[in-house]
Every structure is written in C-alpha cells, then in structure tokens.
Amino acid sequence: MAKINLGESDSALKRNAAILQMNIKRRGFLKGIFSSAVFALTVAPKLASAGSLLEDLNFDEFLQQHYKELSPADKTKIFARIEKQTKAKYHKDVTIKDPKALDNVHFAFCLDLSVCNGSRFCVEACVKENNQSRDPQIQYIRVVELDRGTLNLEKGTSHYTGTVPKEGKYYLPMQCNQCDNPPCVKVCPTEATWKEKDGIVVIDYNWCIGCRYCMAGCPYGARHFNFSEPKIPANEINPNQGYLSNRIRPVGVVEKCTFCLHRTREGQMPACLEACPTGARKFGNLLDPNSDVSKILKSKSVFVLKEELNTMPNFFYYFG
Amino acid sequence: MMKSLLFIFVVISSEASEMVVKHMPEGDKCVVCHQVNTPHQLLLRDGTKIDSEKVDILCGQCHGIKHRKWLNGMHGKVVNSWKEESRKRLSCVVCHDPHEPKFPMFEAKAPPKMQGH
After folding, report:
1. Is the peptide bond before A72 cis (omega within 30 degrees of 0)?
2. What is the mean pLDDT of residues A143-172?
3. For a pLDDT cut of 90, what percent of chain B falls above it?
C-alpha cells in the first residue's frame, strides 16, 4: 500500500517538474484555463446561472494587456467592446476616444483664491462631465471653507451650505494636483497609474487591481475608490468619453481628476473652469511663456499645497 | 454682452431718471460712460467714441490695475480654449453689471454626502 502511494507521488513530482520546465507565460496559462472554462460553460446545458456568469465574465477583458502595450488594432477592439458594454449596462450610446498626450505641453492649473466664492459649480460640472458615481457619491473636487488669514486644511469644512461667500471665510477647491513627483504612481504595484508627458497622471482602469495603495500614498485625498458599481442616471451620462479619463468606471477601481484630458488634449478648457461663475480658475500650458498660467507664475506669489512633501504639484493657488 | 448693452440702452432711454446706479459715488455719473443724447454710444474720458466690444478700455480708465490683470489673464474668465490663438477673454460686463458691479452672492450647490455618518 505504502509502495503504491510512493509510486503515485513520484509520478506526480515528475509531472510537476515537467510543467515547471515548460516556459509558461502567466497570461497564456490563464488563457488556456479560461478558454476551457468557456468551452465547458457553452457546451453545458443552458443553466440560468451559467448564462449570467458568462455575461459577467468577459475573457477578452480579463486578459487585456496594459494600456501601453496595446496596438491601435487592440484599442479599436477594446473601445468597441466598452461601448457595447456601456450600451448593455446603461442603455446609452457612447464614444470612447483616446486623445494622445501633446508635445511641448505641460498642463497646469492656477486658482485665484480671492475670487473663488465656494459656489461648488465646478463640483457639479465635474461630476457630470466625468461620469462620476452619484450613489455612492464620488466627487473629484472638494471645496474647503477656511477662516480668512488661516491655511489649516484640518480646520476647514467642505460641508458648508447656504449663501456664499460667507463673512470672514474664503474657499479653497482641492483636486488632483497632477504632481511632477507623484507618490501615488510610485506605490502602485501593477503600474496601473503613470504620468503622461503632458503632465497628467492617468489610470488604466482595466489594469487597476483596486488595492488602494495610491489612495494611501496621495497626500491630497484626490483619489477615490469605486466600492460598488457606479450609479449614473442614463440621461446624465456624458457620451464623449476618454479611455484614460471619464469612461464609466468598473467596480473596484480607483479614479481621480485627469484635468479633463478628453477635452483639454483637444484644445478645450476643463469642465470645472467652464462652469466657474467667478473666473477663479486658470488653465494652460506651462511651457508656453505667453499662456495665462505662465504669466501668473512669473508675476504672482503662488503657493502649492503641502509643498514640504516635495510632490511638485501642478495646481497653484494665488491671491489675485 | 450685446444683450446687456441692449439692456443698458433700453433702461437708459426709458427709465433713466428712475434708475438706481450703484456704481461710483455721486454726481452726473451717467455721462462718465455714456454720450448725453445717444446713450448707447459709449465714450472714453477724452471724448473718443468706443465700440461696445472694447468696453474693457472704458472700465480700465478707472480700474487700471484690474484691467492690466485682465489683459494678462490673471483676472476674468477665459473660455473656448487654453491655446493662445483661440482663447477668448470674457469682457468685464459679462460678469459685472456696469450699473451694479458688485459680484452677486451665490447659493452654494449641495455639499458632499456625509458617507459613513
């Protein structure tokens, strides 16, 4: 009995060694497993559970490569798939685009704190433009109400209501600073987030594993996690979507402000700026000496948040 | 902007005497900017007629520092594009009513939900 057992384990060892010697690529290996799973499910009797499982699991999606490794043909296929999925899930026709990072452009924001009145028009426009979940609520911009003469963000509140601006207060909107030395990018274990050459930190939502290290790494609280499937009313979905920016996020991934790259890389202004009733927000190209942001940086005293952390933000505040 | 200028014209021609102008302290303030008998015509202080499109020059006579900031993109709203060739600076009167230039108060949009509270 013992001899037979030994023989069995011996052959199992040999088999394992043979497998180990094979040069298995993880993706290929998974592909094999899952294609057989597909086969089993399709030939299996049409069970209701198997049907819904197939709908939920998309193997192309599961096996998709990192954004940087995708060929134009891959992208066309992937964008078509996402458009189809969005149609099925939200009953809305959308277009997925992928505008490339521009050459000789480094985007930056300047915000005039003496003008901002805390009306939160930017927040509302941002939520609509970027297809953020309404429930649970995700908002990229947080407007902090602070006492005049202070700059202690911990003492501020973002839950103020009523008529603004209030006596003795000023308002400081915070969002992703698109840091030149981004801690969120450094901590990502899967390289699902990176800095593009035009200064925008982006996320490949299909490569994000939802570990939320980046949220812990970001000192500005700019990153937000989709704890559940985003809920957006179909009539409020923005159909002009970018793959790396405002396409509707899947559950379990992190998202953040991208300076509306699907708009700004095509020359438009970000949605928050266009919605601002006061003109407090300035946006432009830092590498162009004639841009508004360059002139502001040259002639005004600007400051960034948490400068001591050496994150090198591209979001500057000043008092006009 | 045309709309606001039309508004100015209508108001001045019909109810000029009843109008409360909360701009500048005392005196014959209407004629600081408007021509006496044809009030839709704006005048600079030196008597030069000025087109409604160039109203920022008129405002800049008194608000020189703000005007310089506006010209350099530090004050005022810029729309259309961030590119130099296609950006559009909104004129002074888009945001400030010339007869009551103080920027109005706003009702803040809904605050973020208190999650987990």
Report:
1. no
2. 95
3. 55
Prior bond to A219 cis, omega within 30? no
Segments of A98-189 assigned E as strands: 107-112, 142-147, 163-164, 169-174
CA A52 remoteness from chain centre: 28
Cα separation, A227 vs A111, in Å, equals 31
Residue A15 burial (CB count, 10 A): 10
CA distance A64 to A232: 26
Are the beta carbons of B71 and A85 closer than 8 angstroms? no
Strand-pair category, A107-112 with A163-164: unpaired
State yes or no: ipTM above 0.90: no
Q: Does residue A32 surpass a pLDDT of 80?
A: no
The residue among B4, B69, B94, B115 whose CA lies nearest residue A228 is B115
Closest partner residue to B114 (CB to CB) among A159, A165, A285 is A159
Instruction: For chain B, list residues whose CB is within 8 angstroms of any CB belonging to chain A.
Output: 69, 72-84, 86-87, 90, 95, 103, 105-115
